[in-house]
Amino acid sequence: MVAKLVLDQLEKTGGALTALTLPVANATASQYLQNNGSGVMSWSTVTAGGVTNIKHTATATVTLVEADVSGKSSLVVSVDPSGGNMIVNLPALGTTGLSSCIITVVSRADATSTFSLIVKDSAGTEVWTGYQKNDFITLCESNSVWLVLDHKETYFASRWLTANLTVGGSTTAHLTGFTEISDIGNMWDVATDRVVVPTGMSGFFDINVMSAADTTYPGTGPAYKISGVWKGLWNWGGTDGAQYNIQTGAIVGREIVTTAQYFEAWGWNKDTATKVIAGGEAGKTHFNVTFTRTY
Fold it and tell me: Is 220 helix (H, G, I), strand (E, B) or coil?
């Protein structure tokens, strides 16, 4: 005969601890015994956060709802913007389960043409925009606002001067007429020959301007402006024409910028005589600008 112990409560000898009252029913599979703090025991189910990978390929607009985040520790939304603009709408702040779920939206392909992947809040305000494969944003709800935990987005413009540009003596000239090498993020304004910070964003420009000339003693060099203000000038000194012995010159810089501010490539002729800045091919006068967004 198998011995068994039948009781309703467990109590330590001497009554130093509150008696433990056992559950009145059996547990289901994988449940555990928990204490309510007053000695009453009950069965409970282990709740584990999950990871959901949602792939949207046919729907241009995806709106995340409670079912996407409730009971999840993280949600990964993988989107393909190669065939058209894609929009991911975040859940409304306060959605059940959102406070314990981290959301990542990632592009799994390069956006082509002028397409993009845009993440918006429930009010329709842009939170993040990406353009290339593996561009992503990771964010969570914190104190009833969206908090960006990590992000990567690609904004890059590279162009070369299409034709030679004549610059008068002892003057500067805005370089105009460029041919595209690469344009990611749609920052280039064709009408004004400038790189413009996307609306509503802030961050910094990393800039590289290379200037070439078609003479041995050109007297010219690269320069650039941010929103009409000089920020970079190549200056090698000298007043005699024979001292202007720079064939090419490069200037680099990092500039803090805010929405709608812009970069312009310029040329500077320090010689008193008219000179020519060489264009016509990618290896001559050209520039590269990378925009890095900050939050």
Answer: strand
Which residues lie closer than 8 Å to 165 by C-beta, 6 or more apart? 173, 175, 176, 177, 267, 276, 277, 279, 285
Rounded Cα distance, 45 and 118, in Å: 39
Could you tell me the CA-to-CA distances from 246 to 2, 36, 121, 125, 226 in Å, in that order? 101, 82, 52, 49, 25
Domains in the chain with CATH codes: 9-45 (no CATH), 50-152 (2.60.120), 156-293 (2.60.120.40)
> Are the beta carbons of 123 and 63 closer than 8 angstroms?
no
The rounded distance, in Å, linking the Cα atoms of 49 and 66 is: 14
Considering only CA atoms, which of 110, 98, 121 is closest in space to residue 153?
110
Residue 100: strand, helix, or coil: helix
pTM for the whole thing?
A: 0.80
Token representation of residue 30? 């994988």
How high does pLDDT run on average in the chain? Answer: 87
What percent of the chain has pLDDT above 70?
Answer: 86
Q: What count of residues does the chain have? A: 295
Task: Classify residue 203 as left (phi > 0), alpha (psi -120 to 50) or beta.
Answer: left
pLDDT digits (tens, 9 = 90+) for 133-158: 999 999 999 999 999 999 999 999 99
Could you give the count of Cα atoms lying within 13 Å of 71 in the half-sphere of its Cβ?
6
Beta bridge partners of 287: 159, 209
